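As a warm-up, study this chain.
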Amino acid sequence: MSNIEQYLSQVYCDTLTLGVSSPLALCHTHRCWMSGESTTMPSQNASLLVIDDHAAIRQLLSTLLTESGYRVRSAEDGFSALAEIRNEIPDIIVSDLYMPGMSGFELLSVIRRRFPAIQVIATSGAFSGDDVPPGVAADAFYEKGSSPAHLLRMVETMAQTAPLSPRRSATIAPIWIAKNGHDPSGEEYVMVTCPECLRAFPQVLGSENRVIHETGCVNCSTPIHYAIVQKENQVSSLSKLTSEHRARQFPPPRPATLVDLGRQKPA
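Now compare it with the structure written out below.
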């Protein structure tokens, strides 16, 4: 039985054990059943982002957490998750570790560096126990195949301390990069490293003579502003040309000679 089948089977067993009508109310019912709380939804809900490349697990977790009173969005991989974060920074992220394209290992490392306030729960069926796997930038770990109610308890604990207001990503200053030469077709190009997903890609320079250039990451579609670092000799030449141009437009005053003084009229 695969990890996905084990996980879905565990959800079904939990619904039978707790006597709920469907898996949709499982997590909220289990929380109230264990603590004796009322079944009313919280008045102020944390924002969650669920990231998993398996559509069945992604939809199930999103539905369970939504039914438990949280505001939930989902993404299928690291790149689409970064796009969702650009729209609104979540309070809590629940992310799988093994995903195609950009893995959860890479994604959580980027999130920890760029968005340290986001609380993160890493999930995987490749690791067992509750300890965060070594090298994973997460605050907690949920083993796939274990009770989903255990995941809800983690989320609920984090939600009590998470900032519960939507936030927007700050505007980033242009990235300064040097030219890399010419591609096989003879076009000048640069290698741009995306500040969101940290992936590099070549960018052909156009004929526009401008300081700030704009492009989009070919991987996660993040808008990127970059500027070209001029070489020292290019900067010197440019400064020299600018000085000569100014000298032609605004020549310095010629020193007065004896002939000029003789031409001056007496006061």
